[in-house]
Write a structure and sequence with these properties.
Number of strands: 5
Order of helices and strands: EEEEEHH
Low-confidence stretches: none
Number of helices: 2
Strand content: 25-35%
């Protein structure tokens, strides 16, 4: 599964053969979550409040790029990397 971004120990990934609704996956210290493009965790066991807040902040900044990547993935095209939080 290609990674989209990495920051503060968080790895953001997106699959090519995914199901709707549009989402991405995040991993932090062995915990995983599935997030919508507003940065809300919809599934998973990621417990760190700080990590979830950083993921939400990142997602809100990059919503357009996430949507573009989702369309690319649906068409089996390469997924672009997205800038991390600084």
């Amino acid at each position: 599964m290609p990674y989209v971004s990495m920051f503060f120990g968080i790895i953001i990934r997106m699959f090519h053969q995914e199901h709707n609704p549009p989402h991405f996956h995040a991993e932090y210290q062995g915990q995983r979550g599935m997030f919508d493009f507003d940065g809300n965790m919809v599934k998973g066991n990621l417990k760190s409040r700080r990590a979830k807040k950083l993921i939400q902040e990142w997602a809100m900044i990059h919503q357009a790029k996430l949507r573009q990547n989702w369309q690319q993935a649906k068409q089996r095209r390469p997924i672009e990397r997205i800038e991390p939080l600084n």
